Amino acid sequence: ASKELARRAGRARGHAQRLRQALLERLDGLVFTGHPDRRLPGHLSLCVRGVDAEAVLLALDAEGIEAASGSACATHVRKPSHVLEAIGIDPVTARGALTFSFGETNRDADPDRAAAALPDVVARLRALSPLA
Questions:
Q1: Max alpha carbon distance in the chain (Å)?
Q2: What pairing do the DSSP bridges indicate for beta strands 97-101 and 68-69?
Q3: Catalytic residue positions?
Q4: CA 64 to CA 69: how far, in whole Å?
Q5: Of 99, 108, 92, nearest to 12 (Cα)?
Q6: Residue of 107, 95, 9, 100 whose CA lies nearest to 55
Q7: Are 13 and 111 in contact (CB under 8 A)?
Q8: 98: helix, coil or strand?
Q9: Sheet holding 97-101, edge to edge
Q10: pTM for this structure?
Q11: Phi and psi torsions of 75, nearest 5°
């Protein structure tokens, strides 16, 4: 495992960076959280303005894309993360908190699939949402 660490971390980091860049190009109303580089390889966290993360997750799941909502400190609480609020994210935006994690089992096309699906999901949900 230690011999493969650098390769695996680089691959995971590349997937997260590809998704981040593609989302920046395709979707407005994003607030990326955490440091862009000093983070776990393969980890991407963001808030999507105007949507509830749980609704986004259901729609992504239907597309075969796995993600998580909120932060670890707010799991199962169903309210915005106090950590996101503490770093200046307003409570409505914090409700759209998503996390993507890439690792060894991800395929090279996974970031592209997520980047293609998320803008459509967000557009549908924003059209229905009072948060938008």
A1: 50
A2: antiparallel
A3: 73
A4: 16
A5: 108
A6: 95
A7: no
A8: strand
A9: 30-33, 43-48, 97-101, 68-69
A10: 0.88
A11: -60, 135
Residue type, 127: A
Per-residue pLDDT of the chain (132 residues; tens, 9 = 90+): 899 999 999 999 999 999 999 999 999 999 999 888 899 999 999 999 999 999 999 999 999 999 999 655 555 556 778 888 888 889 999 999 999 999 999 999 999 999 999 999 999 999 997 766
CA distance 78 to 75: 7
H-run or E-run covering 123: helix 110-128
Q: Which helix (H) or strand (E) holds 67?
A: none
- Helix, strand or coil for residue 4? coil
C-alpha distances in Å from residue 50, one per residue of 12, 18, 40, 78, 109: 29, 23, 27, 16, 27
Contact 104, 72 (CB under 8 A): no
Q: Tokens 């991407």, residue?
A: 44
Question: Residue 55 has what pLDDT?
Answer: 94
